[in-house]
Amino acid sequence: MIYSNKMKWTFLVISFAAIQSCSDQSSESQKVPTQQEVNRSMEEYNRQFARDESAQIDSYIERRDWDMLTTGTGLRYMIYEKKEASSAITGDLVEINYEVSLLNGDVIYTSKVSGSRTIEIGKANIESGLHEGLLLMNFGEKAKFILPSHLAHGLSGDNDKIPPRSSVVYDIELVSKK
Fold it and tell me: 69-177 is classed in which CATH architecture?
């Protein structure tokens, strides 16, 4: 994930203020930020991160000339191979083929290596954005999803190949209902 210079400077200013307030507490003129002020600063930092991440995703889509839709949660999706079939619903046990990559193009996981995967929609321990996207598909369809970090692996990444705060790109096929 590439952080903007504004985000880096915001983080540095917040860090410097915290360090400075700890190192010079004897000075009566030095104001220690309240918890509410710290929370507001962190909220603004996170809002700026979300705006920057959204801009990076939009740029990624534009470079590929994809015609994607955006849900209310921020999931971008494009069903590029449509089928007239039943749609997936919460609780369905489904088989998927997939390729997962980062916005820099690195392929992280693929069913070509690890085989297709069976998951229960709405209940499996997978990204919330993947659950949301699968519910938009009919069986047999192929789609591309871009999950912003808050719909993917969030602050911690997946503790393996996906770094913290990373957007994830899925090329996915909803193969069948089990």
Answer: Roll (3.10)
- DSSP letter at 156 equals T
Angle at the Cα of 78 from the Cα atoms of 77 and 81, rounded to 5 degrees: 140
Residue closest to 140 by CA, chosen among 86, 90, 76, 91:
86
Residues 102-111 have pLDDT tens digits of: 999 999 999 9
The H or E element spanning position 78 is strand 76-81
Q: Where are the domains of the chain?
A: 5-64, 69-177
CA pair distance 6, 23, nearest whole angstrom: 25
Calculate helix-pair angle for 5-23, 35-64, nearest 10 degrees: 160
* Distance from chain centroid for Cα 84: 29
Taking the mean position of all CA atoms in its chain, how far away is CA 176?
25
What confidence tens digit (pLDDT) does each residue in 10-48 have?
555 566 555 655 555 555 568 898 999 889 999 998 899
Name the residue among 71, 69, 9 with its Cα closest to residue 44: 9
Whole-structure pTM value: 0.79
CB-based contact 141:174 (threshold 8 Å): yes
